[in-house]
Amino acid sequence: MRINLPGLLIERQKSGARRYRVRVEGNKQLRILLHVTPDDPEFMEHYRAARAGFSSPAPQRLADTAIPHSLAWLTYRFEAAMHERVNASLMHAGTLKQRASFYARLREAHGDKHMVMPRAKVMEIRDGLAGTPGAADNMVKAIRAMYGWAVDMGHVQENPAVGVPAINRGTGAVPWSVDDLQAFRDRHPKGTMAYLALTLFMFTAARIGDVAQLGRQHERTIDRVRHLDWQPEKKGSARVCIPIMPPLAEAIAAQTVVGQTYLLNAWGRPFASKAVFGNWFRDRVREAGLDDRSAHGIRKAAGELMALAGATQYHIMAVHGHTQARTSESYTSGVNRTRLAREAMQAMAGIEW
Questions:
Q1: Are residues 320 and 260 in the same domain?
Q2: Which residues 6+ apart lie within 8 Å of 283 measured at CB?
Q3: In this structure, are residues 254 and 190 in contact, taking their beta carbons and an 8 Å threshold?
Q4: Is 163 helix (H, G, I), strand (E, B) or coil?
Q5: Residues 6+ away with beta carbon under 8 Å from 304
Q6: 158 located within any domain
C-alpha cells in the first residue's frame, strides 16, 4: 500500500519489514514510533495521535490494560503476535486486518469473560451472526486461529472452535455466464480499462489481488511464446506460468498509457490497493447491470469453461495455482459426471426397446 502523509517516515529494516515513525507537528526532532501498519483499520488514529505528540500503546501493551486471562487479554496478545508475523512477512496484512475486526467484536460483547471458552459458546457466537453467514463462518475461523495459537503458547489446553461446522453452505461466488461476459463487454468495449480488467480475469483466472498487480514485469518468453509468470499472493498457492492468449494480448496492446501494472486508475497510476481496485471493478460490474456478480465469479467461470473444454483437474490446478486436487475438483466434478452420464447413455443406444 502506498501512503504519503505529512511527517510520516517509512524505515526499512534489515529483515525487509517496514517500520513507521511520525514527526510531531511543530517539533521535527521528535519522532514517535507507530505500532500499527497502514493496513490496520486504526492506522489513521495512531498517526493523528503521533502528529499531536501522543504515543499510542502497542498491541502487546493493550493486553496489559485488559483483565488478565480474559478474552480481551487473549485477543490483544494474539493480535500482537500477528503483527510480528506480518512484519516478518509470514502473514498477509489483509489477514490481520480481517481478523482484527472480528476480535474487536469479541471484545465488545465478551471481552471481560475468561479466555477459556466452551465449544457451545463459539456456536452461540456463530449463530448470533447467522443473518450474515459469511461473516459468521469467518468469525469461527478467526476464533479457531486465535485458540490454535493459544494452545501452542500454553495459554489454554483446547481449541473450542475445532469441529464447529460452517453455516454458509452456499457455493460461494456465482460463476459468470457467457451472457454475463457479453453484457459486460457491451457496456465496456475493447480499449477501456474495464475491458482489460475483465480480459485479465478471464484469461489468467487470477484472484483480484493478483490481477491488480500484474504487469509487464511478469512477462517472459518461453519457446518463443509470451507468458505471464507470477507468484499468487494467497499463502500456499503454487507459482503460475501461463501463455498470454491472443484476446489478452490484444487487450493489453489496446491501452495507450503504459504503467507499472497493466491496470491503471484514472490518473494513469496503479491502484493503491486491491481493495481500491475491487471497489472500482465492482462499480464497472454494476454499470453493466450485473449487480449480483463478483470478480471471483469470473475465476470460477474460467475454471468451469476450461473443464467444459476437456481440461482435467490438474490442468486447472496449474492455471489457478492450486496445490491440492480437491480444490479444483469443484470445477470438474459436475462436468465430468455429465460427460460420464452422456457416455453411459450412448452405450445404451443399441438396446432394442
A1: yes
A2: none
A3: yes
A4: coil
A5: 175, 331, 335
A6: no
CATH number at residue 183: 1.10.443.10
In 3D space, the residue among 323, 219, 222, 224 whose CA is nearest the CA of residue 262 turns out to be: 219
Q: How many other C-beta atoms are found inside a 10 Å radius of the C-beta of residue 295?
A: 22
Give the pLDDT confidence of 129-183 residue by residue, as tens digits: 888 887 888 899 999 999 999 999 999 999 999 999 888 766 567 788 878 888 9
CA dist., res. 202 & res. 199, Å (int): 5
Q: Is 47 in contact with 54 (CB distance < 8 Å)?
A: no
* Residues in contact with 329: Cβ distance below 8 Å, sequence separation at least 6, in sequence order: 313
How many whole angstroms separate alpha carbon 122 and alpha carbon 71? 12
Rounded to 10°, the helix 119-128/133-153 angle is 150
Q: Are residues 205 and 235 in the same domain?
A: yes
The whole domain housing 39 covers 8-56
Cell of 32: 514517535
Q: Provide the 3-class DSSP secondary structure of residue 225.
A: strand
Name all contacts of 225-228 with Cβ < 8 Å and 24+ positions apart.
228/204
- How far is Cα 210 from Cα 274, in angstroms, rounded to an integer? 8
- The CB density around residue 251, as the number of other CB atoms within 10 Å, is 24
Which residue type occupies 275? A
As a 3-state breakdown, the chain gives helix, strand, coil percent values, each rounded to 5, of: 50, 10, 40
pLDDT digits (tens, 9 = 90+) for 173-217: 778 887 888 899 999 999 999 999 999 988 888 888 999 999 999
- Sequence letter at residue 177: S
Q: Which three cell numbers stand for residue 348?
A: 445404451
Decide: 106 and 66 in contact? Cβ < 8 Å. no
